[in-house]
């Protein structure tokens, strides 16, 4: 197979390593080979988890008249339990979800995939009522994975009316980015899914203006700043407010800038 490395001696004059040096070099190389093999195994596992996580997310975003969509996903080294989704619904409407399962690694990735798939089904059946969608998800989580908790946000978007109805469970509020405002949506405070015996919080209606971007994100975006949460929210608001006006109607450019 391919060579992992080589041991080289340098001398001031022609010479060869003596027996003790050869013995020590042999011990070192054996330890090094075992260490490299473990590192390679860890890296392969990380790559596998990252691949699985990407496969559990939408392969492409749907095309919905009157709406432009963009998504950016960055996974930590162990793989995280974050998910997002966009789903065309009747009338015509659009369902948007974003969420995060507590923990990291393969278990969190798999749980996020299950929750995303389940939320899709609930959205198709009763998407116009985001509270009902998240209540169903809460019940599923309690019955099937009682040891887990998750944050989630589901939004029912009606492009023709520029209206977004959303409900959140322990999730950070969306940001509205437009020509005349950059502000967090006023959402009700609620516990994450799996934290209460029965979850329910009122939904919130957002009236967007033409060309505005509704920015959904997970707490991972805030945590990666390394700041306390209030400071992280302030930094996110500053980043969104500094999007050049020429780019504000391009959601991909907005996401890249933020």
Task: Write a short abstract of this structure.
It contains 6 helices and 8 strands; from the N terminus they run H-E-E-H-H-E-E-E-E-E-E-H-H-H. It has helices at residues 19-55, 106-126, 130-144, 219-223, 229-241, 251-257, and strands at residues 80-89, 93-104, 150-158, 163-169, 175-177, 182-184, 204-207, 213-215. The longest helix is centred in the first third of the chain and has 37 residues, at 19-55.
Give the topology, please.
Elements (H helix, E strand, L loop, with lengths): L18 H37 L24 E10 L3 E12 L1 H21 L3 H15 L5 E9 L4 E7 L5 E3 L4 E3 L19 E4 L5 E3 L3 H5 L5 H13 L9 H7 L1
Antiparallel strand pairs: 1-2, 2-3, 3-4, 4-7, 5-6, 5-8
Helix pairs in contact: 2-3
Q: What's the arrangement of strands in the largest beta sheet? A: 1-2-3-4-7
Radius of gyration based on Cα positions? 25 Å
Estimate the global geometry from the Cα principal axes: elongated
Percentage of residues assigned to helices? 25-40%
Mean pLDDT: 87
Q: Between the first and last Cα atoms, what is the distance in angstroms?
A: 44 Å
